[in-house]
Design a protein that fits this description.
Bound molecules: heme C
CATH topology: Cytochrome Bc1 Complex, Chain D, domain 2
CATH class: Mainly Alpha
CATH architecture: Orthogonal Bundle
Number of strands: 2
Shape: elongated
Number of helices: 7
Length: 145
């Protein structure tokens, strides 16, 4: 190989490494601190929460005599290190008692978005998806990393 050829090979390799590391960064796991729902979605969720959940969990999920709070440290500790998909599935498969699985997925995503907002996680530009597979890739972290 001539020096010139070596230089070309080196630059191609460096370019590939750059693309590769950019791809890795793009895949860094998203967390609830990255703005994973929109304000508007949480507003829709608040209306649904009022209708379907607040009679037991209290307004804004602050807790009632019938059911635990869905906000605060004790709540967040239950999901810390898990995924938003776990919370979504918990809502979808166990709530409201007696009507499990009857809330449509997009409505359930809106309710989950409202719960993230009630727990002071920031809103962002894109809506929370309503497929649990996609939600599994968003990490629930109680403390800001
Ligand atoms: C009829 C009363 C009732 C209604 C309505 C209700 N829940 Fe619950 N919920 C409970 C009770 C009781 C518990 C605690 C026992 C259990 O875990 O099943 C609970 C537990 C939960 C938990 C687990 C809390 C934790 O710390 O992990 C979540 C999440 C939840 N509810 C979400 C919802 C959502 C969202 C709705 C509305 C779509 C809702 N619930 C409607 C009674 C209710």
């Amino acid at each position: 190989m001539t020096t010139r050829e070596r230089t070309v090979v080196l630059f191609v390799a460096l370019g590939a490494a750059g693309i590769f590391s950019a791809a890795l960064r793009a895949q860094a796991p998203r967390t609830v601190w990255d703005g994973v729902y929109t304000e508007e979605q949480a507003k829709r969720g608040a209306v649904l929460f009022d209708k379907e959940c607040a009679q037991c969990h209290g307004p804004s999920g602050a807790g009632g005599s019938m059911a635990p709070a869905l906000t605060g440290q004790a709540f967040s500790a239950n999901y810390d290190g898990n995924s938003v998909g776990d919370l979504f599935d918990r809502n979808r498969t166990t709530m409201p008692p007696g009507k499990e699985g009857q809330i449509e997925a997009p409505d359930n995503a809106a309710i989950t978005a409202f719960m993230l907002q009630a727990n002071a996680f920031p809103a962002g530009e894109t809506e929370l998806p309503s497929q649990s597979m996609m939600l599994k890739s968003i990490k629930y972290l109680a403390e800001k990393p």
